[in-house]
């Protein structure tokens, strides 16, 4: 009976760690970018990327105590899954980002590509100053 416990734990880890890693990689990428960019550039870049106002993003970030990476994930998941960002933010208080993405059938490759596009556009915005 004890042999099954380690096997079960390893099986669970094998099937849950890769998606978690993938999603948090995008969050980490955006958080890292935000440490090297002025905050207004981050908000303006994300606003242009998601088609929302920078003021809305500032409010969401502040009200929900989010990092830029979390704010990015909320908007990216909402965009891809065609859900309201407010609903995603509400879910994020009770669920992991990976659970939300899985429930919304979000393709992690699509999120990864989208994070790359956002990163490039924010860097381009910064260089054009």
Task: Briefly say what this structure is.
With 129 residues, the protein is mainly α. It has helices spanning 4-36, 39-50, 54-64, 68-81, 85-92, 97-103, 108-127.
How do the strands and helices of this protein lay out in sequence?
Blueprint: H1 4-36, H2 39-50, H3 54-64, H4 68-81, H5 85-92, H6 97-103, H7 108-127
Helix pairs in contact: 1-4, 1-7, 2-3, 2-7, 4-5, 4-7
- Secondary-structure element pattern, one letter each: HHHHHHH
Shape: globular
Assembly state? single chain
Number of strands: 0
Domain count: 1
Q: How many DSSP H or I helices? A: 7
CA radius of gyration is: 16 Å
Straight-line N-to-C gap: 65 Å
Portion of residues in helices? over 70%
For the sheet with most strands, the description reads:
none
How much is the average pLDDT? 83
- Ranges where pLDDT stays below 50 over 5 or more residues in a row are 10-22
Which strand-content bin applies to the residues?
under 5%
Q: Structural class of the secondary structure composition?
A: mainly alpha
């Amino acid at each position: 009976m004890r042999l099954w416990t380690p096997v079960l734990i390893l099986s669970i880890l094998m099937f849950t760690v890769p998606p978690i890693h993938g999603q948090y990689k995008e969050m980490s990428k955006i958080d890292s970018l935000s440490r090297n960019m002025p905050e207004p550039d981050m908000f303006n870049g994300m606003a242009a990327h998601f088609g929302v106002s920078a003021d809305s993003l500032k409010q969401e970030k502040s009200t929900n105590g989010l990092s830029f990476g979390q704010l990015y994930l909320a908007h990216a998941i909402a965009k891809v899954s065609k859900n309201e960002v407010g609903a995603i933010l509400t879910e994020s208080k009770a669920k992991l980002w990976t659970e939300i993405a899985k429930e919304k059938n979000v393709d992690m490759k699509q999120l990864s590509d989208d994070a790359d596009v956002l990163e490039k556009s924010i860097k381009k915005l910064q260089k054009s100053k």
